[in-house]
Amino acid sequence: MIEIDGVHKSFGALRVLRGVSLKVAPGEVAVVLGPSGSGKSTLLRTINHLEKVDAGTVAVDGELVGYRRSGDVLHELPEREILRQRTKIGFVFQNFNLFPHLTVRENVAEAPLSAQRRPKAEVAETVNRLLLRVGLSDKADAYPGTLSGGQRQRVAIARALALDPKVVLFDEPTSALDPELVGEVLDVMRDLAKSGTTMVVVTHEIGFAREAADTVVFLDEGLVVEQGPPDQVIDHPQHERTRAFISRVL
Ligand SMILES: Nc1ncnc2c1ncn2[C@@H]1O[C@H](COP(=O)(O)OP(=O)(O)OP(=O)(O)O)[C@@H](O)[C@H]1O
Ligand SMILES: [Mg+2]
């Protein structure tokens, strides 16, 4: 479902991704671990072309993201094509990014109405179903400012699911939350993982990685140091850098 192949990305002289490859099969969950500055967010952002890569390719659902190939040359796609591709990729950020002037229901309905121009009645049904799924049916008409952080993040997850994406990317979805609110968000994510959603999750929640991940990827200084099933990477890491990192976050 996701195929990242030899991706390089620099900001000026800073080499942030130095040849990262990663495959995520349909229905799989990949958890990306790594120290601050190792390139985790940048890697996620390359998956939906929020960040242009300098070399390498990203494909989602069998389609190159951001480019079309002609012979050996890649041509960047026009903006409207990139926007179409992004509808296949849900993104959940650390800081929710909800529209403060829209209700919960309107936040979730926004993309299907404006980006996909789906009929109102059908979107209303989708929104109800998604709010039920994240346990927020009773907050449909509330404004984000009146919600707890955990509730806001669950709205953000419902919004990311509203376009029925092929994959959902999470960038530290619980790290801005008070500790007692982390569990309710992880519960929703576990539920998504179980129901076969293809996910890439950047998180420091090792418990979640152990339970929900098919693959754990340890990124350090822009390189994949180690990847494999959780019991291998978390419990029996092969590399000293992985070991040191895991022991710090456990
Ligand atoms: N737009 C940008 N311009 C310049 N430098 C950037 C930009 N985005 C990221 N960087 C730098 O790239 C490096 C990797 O950043 P990135 O956000 O991917 O790290 P991260 O692993 O997500 O870290 P954290 O755990 O702190 O979120 C950092 O040194 C960061 O300062
Ligand atoms: Mg980050």
UniProtKB/TrEMBL annotation:
Stored CDD domains: ABC_HisP_GlnQ
ABC transporter domain location: 2-246
* Catalysed reactions, as listed in the record: a polar amino acid(out) + ATP + H2O = a polar amino acid(in) + ADP + phosphate + H(+)
Q: Gene Ontology cellular component?
A: plasma membrane
What are the record keywords, sorted?
A: Amino-acid transport, ATP-binding, Cell membrane, Membrane, Nucleotide-binding, Transport
**What's a single GO MF annotation on this record?**
ATPase-coupled polar amino acid-transporter activity
Q: Name one Pfam family in it.
A: ABC_tran
Localization, per the record, is:
Cell membrane
InterPro entries per the UniProt record, alphabetical: AAA+_ATPase, ABC_ATPase_HisP-typ, ABC_transporter-like_ATP-bd, ABC_transporter-like_CS, MetN_ABC_transporter-like, P-loop_NTPase
- Its EC number is 7.4.2.1
On whether DNA repair is a keyword of this UniProt record, the answer is no
- Where does the source fall among the domains of life? Bacteria
Q: How does this protein sit in the membrane?
A: Peripheral membrane protein
User: What family is this protein classified in?
Assistant: Belongs to the ABC transporter superfamily.
The entry's protein name is ABC-type polar-amino-acid transporter
